[in-house]
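Run log // design_07
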């Protein structure tokens, strides 16, 4: 990784829970490429785990951000405006669904559980894009994390299927709306990765095994592969890529 690739660029990464998080892989690779970081933690319980990562990555901005708190979200962007006056990259790498709704069939999920999953996993990205875009005066790149279960039936993905489908669609519409400001909006779709969020899915170990054994490359992408792709897509080398879903899964999604 060229350490000056993103020199002078400012990147906000939300969704680091620990050293297994996809967001950590993204933050680490963006930092390696020279970007200045802002990172967040969910709450006081999560903070000690994220503190270790903040010690390692030395972000310029380190704040609490629970996206169900409007005050938390607004505060992050206020701090970015005060400290940086602008931002170039946003990585939204968060998702949530109540376990009882996630682990049951979609048809039986509660309205509250569905709306909460949509709010945290999809609407918060739209909201952050709205707050970030005025700060992207020379353009920028917005990333959301999805999964192939949005497009095809992946057993046990259940409620998150329609939620991620909505997220991918939101990415396309925002790419259209923000394109004239030179703001690109991209969905990253990694294959299965062992993280805390993924542990909420039933039989996740079987999915990992299937991905490893049957993907064309017979391998699993790791969080740094994902971070490397986010880094590349943040540069001018990717200046004509927007609105798309970029898979990083050793070709696993091609199997259907
Ligand atoms: P993770 O558990 O490390 O990260 C999920 C993050 O969401 C955590 O940091 C958590 O604090 C955050 N979060 C949950 N509720 C929040 C809220 N109210 N406010 C702010 N943050 C909140 O797991 P991960 O697998 O790294 O997940 C990151 C993203 O990647 C998610 O969108 C997930 O759906 C997506 N993804 C994961 C996989 C996988 O197999 N792990 C595959 C494809 C896509």
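design_07 sequence
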């Amino acid at each position: 990784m060229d350490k000056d690739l993103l020199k002078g660029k400012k990147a906000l990464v939300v969704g680091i829970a620990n050293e297994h998080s996809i967001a950590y892989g993204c933050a680490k690779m963006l930092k390696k490429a020279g970007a200045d970081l802002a990172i967040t933690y969910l709450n006081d319980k999560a903070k000690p785990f994220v503190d270790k990562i903040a010690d390692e990555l030395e972000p310029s901005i380190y704040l609490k951000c629970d996206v169900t708190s409007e005050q938390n979200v607004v505060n992050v962007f206020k701090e970015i405006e005060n400290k940086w006056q602008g931002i170039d990259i946003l990585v939204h790498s968060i998702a949530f669904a109540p376990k009882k709704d996630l682990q049951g069939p979609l048809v039986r999920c509660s309205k509250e559980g569905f709306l909460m999953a949509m709010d945290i996993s999809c609407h918060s990205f739209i909201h952050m894009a709205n707050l970030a875009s005025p700060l992207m005066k020379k353009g920028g790149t917005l990333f959301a994390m999805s999964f192939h279960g949005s497009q095809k039936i992946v057993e046990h993905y259940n409620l998150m299927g329609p939620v991620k489908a909505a997220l991918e669609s939101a990415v396309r519409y925002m790419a259209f709306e923000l394109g004239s400001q030179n703001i690109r909006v991209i969905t990253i779709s990694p294959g299965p990765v062992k993280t805390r969020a993924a542990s909420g899915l039933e039989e996740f170990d079987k999915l990992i095994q299937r991905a490893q054994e049957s993907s064309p490359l017979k391998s699993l992408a790791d969080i740094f592969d994902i971070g490397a792709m986010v880094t590349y897509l943040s540069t001018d080398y990717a200046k004509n890529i927007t609105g798309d879903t970029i898979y990083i899964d050793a070709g696993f999604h091609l199997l259907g």
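DSSP finds eight helices and seven strands in the chain.
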